[in-house]
Write a structure and sequence with these properties.
The protein is an alpha/beta fold. 33% of the residues lie in helices and 28% in strands. It is built from 5 helices and 8 strands, in the order E-H-E-E-E-H-E-E-E-H-E-H-H.
């Protein structure tokens, strides 16, 4: 079974920064697991790197084929956004590979159900709320079209 390091934390806690630093360290030998989302791509993101950006038709296709490991749905000010992990061949069970992924505590629990607790390494990032808010505002200001309402919703969630 694979060994999966699972990074969790609230919005703007630095999960992506830590994730990128860990995968750049080649001595760790970590493979990434790219999750899927129906939300729009942010400035600076690349399809297939941070997420696979898909539409609801692709979600339905995965659901029809029982390929969804875990899914979260968020009612945003822009409509429903889905984030999910699919059993799409990225994770090679029994290969001895070590993986790293970013997700929520709820997603972590689904991974535990799917792969077993013995295969999981939970990493929770906790950052003071004032710093998280500063980071969230800075990130939103860097977008072509800032979505401050959605930023506030994520921060308060």
């Amino acid at each position: 079974m694979p060994e999966i390091a699972f990074i969790m934390g609230k919005s703007s806690s630095g999960k992506d920064h830590i994730f990128k630093a860990l995968i750049e360290d080649e001595t760790l030998g970590l493979s990434t697991i790219t999750m899927y989302t129906t939300r729009p791509m942010r400035a600076g993101e690349t399809d297939g790197v941070e997420y696979y950006f898909v539409d609801d038709n692709k979600v339905c296709e995965f659901e029809k084929n029982n390929k969804i490991i875990e899914m979260r749905k968020y009612q945003t000010v822009y409509g429903e956004w889905k984030y999910f992990t699919a059993d799409d061949g990225q994770i090679e069970s029994g290969s001895g590979k070590r993986y790293i992924v970013i997700g929520t505590i709820e997603a972590y629990n689904k991974f535990v159900e799917y792969f077993g607790k013995e295969c999981m390494l939970p990493i929770y990032i906790e950052v003071e709320d004032g710093l998280r808010l500063q980071r969230a505002i800075k990130r939103e200001q860097e977008q072509d079209v800032p979505h401050y309402e959605e930023m506030c919703r994520r921060f308060l969630a």
